[in-house]
Amino acid sequence: MALVRISSAAFKEAFLLFWAGSILAGFLGYKLLDWWVPAVLAGAVAAGQFFLFQMMLGEHSGRFELLLFSLILNLMMYYATFSIGRALGQRRKRRRKGRP
Q: Quick check: is 1 in a domain?
């Protein structure tokens, strides 16, 4: 397996895509959407990362392992931020109803 150098700009794009999805998952959890929303969001971000990896790595064999790892990382992070946002949204909803 050959080592591939990833440019700084490509790394920043992948990093931005990951964190933008995390923030969006937290916001959607705050809006009290259903549990499947983070999975759809992780799939959409993984598709974007697939095309980003395709451009960065070309035809190198490490692309699919990197995609699988990023999908697992996305799922964990997005479900965590979705759960945090959902807990905050439920707390806000209870406070508006007058319950502590």
A: no
| 36 in a structural domain | yes
Evaluate whether residue 100 is within a structural domain.
no
Domain that holds residue 21: 9-95
Helix, strand, coil % over all residues of the chain, rounded to 5:
80, 0, 20
User: What whole-number distance in Å separates Cα of residue 12 and Cα of residue 54?
Assistant: 16
Domain count, the chain: 1
pTM for the complete prediction? Answer: 0.78
User: Does residue 2 lie in a domain region?
Assistant: no
pLDDT tens track for 65-78: 777 888 888 899 99
Q: Which of the four pLDDT bands, split at 50, 70 and 90, describes residue 86?
A: very high
Name 42's Cβ contacts closer than 8 Å, sequence gap at least 6. Answer: 21, 71, 74, 75, 78
